[in-house]
Description:
The chain has helices at residues 19-30, 41-53, 60-71. It is 51% helix and 0% strand.
Amino acid sequence: MARKPNxxxxxxxxxxxxxxxxxxxxxxxxxxxxxxxxxxxxxRIVIRDFLLSVDGDKRVFEVLSALEEAFS
Length: 72
């Protein structure tokens, strides 16, 4: 599948409705960006354990909603 030209800026809101739209929006927004992160091995284990504990049928927004509710 050919990628669409990057037309989303960092400050724009992208209205992605389908899984393909979400994928394309992610690629457009993250192209040409770099981030350096240093995560300790212990933190990676915790993150991995958490991700493995999440139901595989959940969508990212459902997980984010649950986390936001828990931390509110």
